[in-house]
Amino acid sequence: MKRKGFPSPDQTNTEPTPALDPFDTALLEAEISADDAVPTLDLHGLNREEARFALQAALNSALQSGHDCLKIIHGNGDILRKEVHKFLQEQQTLHLVAKFRPSTVNNQMAGVTVAALYRLK
After folding, report:
1. Which of 22, 43, 56, 72 gets the highest tally of CB atoms within 10 A of its CB?
2. Which helix (H) or strand (E) holds 61?
3. pTM of the model as a whole
């Protein structure tokens, strides 16, 4: 008996779906996490220099604690968002940050960036 809207077994795609990169998985988990499992840094009210200093301290702390991700709240303005992304790009060249991306809520910018971190050995 064929159910309406479902493909027959011979029509199903047998190709395996590609596995997510472990860093992409960590970013996704950090985005949807609402608890204290992911360290979070709130940069509201800070200027660029203060934000950069706080970000370096939070990154060091997260790395030393063995966390996979860091959630950074910078707000919807361009100044801090650009500074955060510039800082994270610099950390990628130092092999401390693997990936980062803006977090979205309901497909809208949420004023948050999540960063996947390399583990220190």
Report:
1. 72
2. helix 48-65
3. 0.73
Tell me the three state secondary structure of residue 16.
coil
Neighbours of 95 (CB within 10 A): 8
Contact 69, 59 (CB under 8 A): no
Residue 21 amino acid letter: D
Distance CA 110, CA 31 (A): 10
Phi, psi torsion values for 79, nearest 5 degrees? -65, -55
36-67 pLDDT per residue, tens: 678 899 999 999 999 999 999 999 999 999 88
Task: Report the chain's C-alpha Rg in angstroms.
Answer: 19
Output helix, strand, coil percentages for the chain, rounded to the nearest 5.
40, 20, 40
Please check the confidence at residue 5 and state whether its pLDDT lies above 50.
Answer: no
| Whether 18 contacts 47, CB under 8 Å | no
- Residue 50: C-alpha distances to residues 23, 30, 36, 53, 72 (Å): 28, 24, 24, 5, 14
Residue of 29, 48, 49 lying closest to 38 (CA atoms):
29
